[in-house]
Design brief:
By secondary structure, this protein is mostly beta strands. About 10% of the residues lie in helices and about 40% in strands. It starts with 7 loop residues before the first strand and ends in an 8-residue tail after the last helix.
């Protein structure tokens, strides 16, 4: 479990194919900020651009860790198949502050950036979300974009699904990898956990509900 509060910006420094077939995944090497891995052990979970992954090994000075990403995960996410900056978050501890919102690290869909530009001191980010996620997105609701917990400022439904707008303050731009986004970029989206369960409860026919 995570909160969507990024604890470090790393970089995928190497991508190694685990086989030649389409069914094979990839091994990623992620370089981290100094001392980021001091309290991390093999088998721990770290969210990479919002996707929960298992740490498999470290380099000798513990500045880089590796994860194995399945073909299924690669197919359902964005930004994990090539080198570049990524948002990192270590798994939530029971005594940690919940600064963002409850995040599972399971990507629900891949969205597309339709607009990203400075507005005053902040930045306006607009994202086209897949049709299946539209029902989970609401004004002032929570959304995770590449692992970052953000607040939805507006929702506009359309034939393709819906477009959401988000305001990014300078702190978010400076302390995450979202500042590297460009129009047309694919981003990992995770909807609010509570919204997912509320939708499920409303969609179950009354006859199928427990007494």
């Amino acid at each position: 479990m995570f909160t969507g509060i990024i604890t470090g910006v790393g970089r995928i420094s190497d991508v190694h194919a685990l086989g030649e077939a389409a069914s094979h995944g990839k091994r990623l090497a992620i370089t981290t900020p100094a001392h980021y891995l001091d309290d991390v052990n093999p088998g721990d979970s770290i969210a990479i651009n919002g996707a929960c992954m298992t740490v498999t090994s470290f380099d000798k000075d513990r500045s880089t860790f590796t994860v194995d990403v399945s073909a299924e995960s690669l197919d359902k996410t964005a930004g994990l198949a090539s080198t570049g900056p990524v948002n990192l978050e270590k798994a939530l501890r029971a005594n940690d502050r919940l600064g963002g919102h409850l995040v599972s690290g399971h990507v629900d869909g891949v969205g597309r950036v339709t607009h990203f530009a400075a507005v005053g001191e902040s930045w306006m980010l607009r994202i086209e979300a897949p049709p299946g996620l539209a029902k989970f997105l609401a004004y002032k609701g929570s959304i995770t974009v590449n692992g970052v917990s953000l607040t939805v400022n507006s929702v506009e439904d359309n034939a393709a699904g819906c477009e959401i707008s988000i305001n990014l303050i300078p702190h978010t731009i400076e302390n995450t990898a979202l500042g590297h986004l460009m129009t047309g970029a694919a981003v990992n989206l995770e909807v609010d956990l509570i919204a997912r369960y509320v939708e499920r409860m409303h969609s179950v026919p009354p006859a199928a509900r427990p007494a």
